[in-house]
């Protein structure tokens, strides 16, 4: 069975040294008291829960999957999932960063992200149950009426009830404007919903007393397309005013998908038969309201792949130190043994360091983004809130797509470290690869993230958000421009920054003439931007690590950063060339010739 040790040291490095979060919190009245000791204590306990309670369930969930009883429409989760969930609720983990007004602990979101990284390393499938509930909490917190908040938020905060997001229908996934589920207004101001949803994660299960579905549907007079979508809250059991459970609502699980990975998470087909619902936000503004949940979920999906990258790396390192095959090309390293451990071989190290760099870079980006979310919510300064929100909007598609693409690469490389044994189920490595693949697809495929980044977030505002990030990069380059030991990082960062500016301008011009140019370049463009952000964050980290080379942690950090700059960042040259090659090679072939 795979092993997992929470990477507390690197989390502490990112939080306390790179981001200096407790200093940042001092400017936020609601977090001003959150100091280094509090943060470390929470991380330590969260790590114990993830590694001790959740991690042992991961192979069990994969083997057993979820079972639907077609008569009762109830779903049984794998052995141990429910007991672990009860411990999660009893430990107050679901309430960590929720609003104290609804029973939350009010701690910063960046701490919640650390918790979720660890939970995802332990078991992505299990973690999706509380993860989706948190998304539903965020959405109702932002857009719910006072009555909806009073009914649902305390139970979603505690985890007694769980949440889902019901968007997808059989004929529409990416293009939600096509959705058909109907909502008929009732005389009492409520609605009756009828339709079918598919692929609903955690759509039915036995972990929580009630399931709060957030459902996109159309009102009778709604305009066609995405401008005619409204959001409704549709609980499995209708809540009573005192918080107790009332009548069973007309929303049922009619089937479970058999799928490549995350077997422990129930991916449900849901039927709505005149289900009772209430409107969330304004009529026909459902997509905007749902975006709160979708943006939280996009960051959450990035965390899923970060968690998988870390756990795959840890297990691959342990194996590479233990497995003896062949001698080192530069002479035996373990002459007393029949062969050297495979960690002596350069290409095994390439695989390991790729995963390590993607884990450490991903963690830095995920925490940096989560801190922006804290600032956007809790800063006293309006300008700072706005600035943080804008930067986060730019980074969200990068967190989702770059971290999940990297997670796919990293888990696959770590499987490769095991040779044929990686492909065999008992080591658990192939599960990480299977689980990682969905992260590139749901919450908007990575293609859609790339279109969002280039089309909307960059060209859509004439590069204003990109310039904001560019100003941060330039500031760092100017600060370190004459510091000789930093040149090996600052120079490639500056070079890539210039190239991104040129590429963006070129794509902007091309897009004026032909919008397909955006679609043709977007995926490569996002990956180039992902590397720019990693190069920036790694340069910040190198600045700290260079000064502390008498300590093994910082020596390892610097070695990882140097590997990143030498072996992974150069991929940008190929990506830029490909992005510049335009739409023609893709669109030239007549459809009939495919
Ligand atoms: C395990 C699992 C769990 C899920 N959980 C949920 C959930 O909890 N709630 C929920 O509502 N949904 C959920 N989904 C659905 C998921 O979000 C969708 O599958 C996803 O958004 C893609 O939609 P689709 O499958 O219909 O693919 P399609 O939209 O049909 O896309 C097919 C392909 O076409 C590409 N494409 C589409 N439009 C464009 C375009 N304009 N430009 C370029 N390429 C394009 C896509 O990128 C993709 O490669 C889940 C799916 C799975 C498999």
Task: Walk me through the structure.
The longest helix has 37 residues. The protein has 19 helices and eleven strands. The radius of gyration is 24 Å and the shape is globular. The chain is of the alpha+beta class and 594 residues long. Helix 7 packs antiparallel against helix 9 and helix 11 packs across helix 12. Strands 3, 4, 5, 6, 7, 10 and 11 form a seven-stranded mixed sheet that branches. It binds flavin-adenine dinucleotide. The site of flavin-adenine dinucleotide has 19 residues, from strand 3, strand 5 and helix 13.
Give the SSE map:
Layout: H1 8-18, H2 21-26, H3 36-54, H4 57-64, E1 67-69, E2 74-76, H5 81-90, H6 109-122, H7 124-143, H8 146-158, E3 161-166, E4 182-185, E5 191-201, E6 210-217, E7 230-235, E8 237-239, E9 245-248, E10 251-256, E11 267-280, H9 286-322, H10 346-378, H11 382-417, H12 429-437, H13 446-458, H14 464-480, H15 487-513, H16 516-545, H17 552-568, H18 571-580, H19 584-587
Order of helices and strands: HHHHEEHHHHEEEEEEEEEHHHHHHHHHHH
The biggest sheet, with number of strands, parallel, antiparallel or mixed sense and barrel status, is:
7 strands, mixed
Identify low-pLDDT runs: none
Rounded to the nearest angstrom, the radius of gyration is: 24 Å
What would the principal axes of the Cα set say about the shape? globular
What's the average pLDDT?
97
Number of strands: 11
Q: Which class do the helix and strand fractions yield?
A: alpha+beta
Distance between the termini: 45 Å
Q: How much of the residues is beta strand, in percent?
A: 5-15%
Helical fraction equals: 55-70%
Number of helices: 19
Small molecules held by this entry: flavin-adenine dinucleotide
């Amino acid at each position: 069975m795979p092993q997992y040790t929470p990477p507390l040291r690197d989390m502490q490095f990112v939080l306390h040294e790179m981001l200096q979060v407790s200093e940042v919190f001092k400017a936020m009245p609601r977090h001003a008291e959150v100091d280094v000791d509090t943060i470390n204590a929470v991380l330590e306990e969260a790590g114990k829960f993830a590694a001790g309670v959740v991690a042992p369930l991961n192979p069990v969930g994969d083997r057993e999957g979820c079972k639907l009883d077609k008569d009762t429409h109830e779903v049984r989760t794998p052995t141990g999932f429910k007991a672990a969930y009860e411990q999660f609720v009893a430990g107050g983990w679901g309430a960590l960063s929720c609003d104290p007004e609804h029973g939350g602990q009010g701690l910063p979101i960046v701490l919640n992200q650390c918790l979720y990284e660890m939970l995802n390393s332990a078991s992505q499938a299990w973690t999706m149950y509380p993860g989706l509930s948190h998304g539903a909490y965020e959405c109702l917190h932002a857009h719910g009426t006072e009555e909806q908040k009073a009914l649902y938020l305390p139970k979603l905060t505690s985890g007694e009830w769980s949440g889902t997001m019901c968007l997808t229908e059989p004929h529409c996934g990416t293009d939600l404007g096509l959705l058909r589920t109907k909502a008929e207004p009732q005389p009492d101001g409520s609605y009756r919903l009828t339709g079918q949803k598919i692929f609903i994660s955690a759509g039915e299960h036995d972990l929580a007393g009630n399931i709060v579905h957030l459902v996109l549907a159309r009102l009778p007079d709604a305009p066609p397309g995405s401008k005619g979508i409204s959001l409704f809250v549709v609980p499995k059991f209708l809540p009573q005013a005192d918080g107790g459970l009332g009548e069973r609502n007309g929303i049922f699980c009619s089937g479970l998908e058999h799928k490549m990975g995350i077997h422990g998470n129930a991916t449900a087909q849901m039927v709505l038969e005149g289900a009772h619902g209430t409107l969330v936000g304004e009529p026909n503004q459902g997509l905007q309201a749902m975006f709160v949940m979708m943006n939280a979920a996009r960051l959450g999906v990035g965390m899923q792949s970060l968690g998988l990258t870390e756990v795959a790396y840890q297990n691959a390192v342990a194996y590479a130190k233990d497995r003896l095959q062949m001698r080192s090309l530069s002479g035996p390293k373990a002459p007393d043994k029949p062969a050297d451990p495979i960690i002596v071989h350069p290409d095994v190290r390439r695989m390991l360091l790729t995963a390590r760099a993607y884990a450490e870079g991903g963690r830095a980006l995920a925490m940096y983004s989560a801190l922006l979310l804290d600032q956007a919510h809790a800063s006293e300064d309006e300008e700072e809130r706005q600035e943080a929100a804008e930067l986060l909007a730019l980074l969200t598609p990068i967190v989702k797509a770059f971290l999940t693409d990297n997670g796919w690469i990293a888990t696959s490389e770590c499987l490769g470290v095991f040779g044929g044994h990686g492909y065999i189920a008992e080591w658990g490595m192939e599960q990480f690869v299977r689980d990682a693949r969905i992260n590139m697809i749901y919450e908007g495929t990575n293609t859609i993230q790339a279109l969002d980044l280039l089309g909307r977030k960059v060209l859509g505002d004439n590069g204003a958000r990109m310039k904001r990030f560019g100003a941060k990069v330039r500031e760092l380059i100017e600060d370190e421009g004459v510091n000789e030991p930093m040149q090996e990082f600052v120079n490639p960062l500056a070079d890539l920054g210039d190239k991104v500016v040129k590429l963006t301008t070129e794509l902007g011009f091309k897009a004026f003439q032909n919008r397909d140019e955006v679609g043709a370049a977007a995926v490569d463009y996002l990956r180039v931007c992902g590397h720019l952000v990693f190069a920036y964050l790694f340069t910040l980290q190198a600045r700290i690590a260079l000064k502390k080379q008498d300590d093994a942690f910082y020596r390892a950090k610097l070695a990882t950063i140097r590997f990143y700059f030498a072996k992974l960042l150069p991929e940008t040259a190929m990506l830029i060339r490909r992005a510049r090659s335009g739409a023609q090679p893709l669109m030239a072939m007549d459809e009939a010739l495919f």
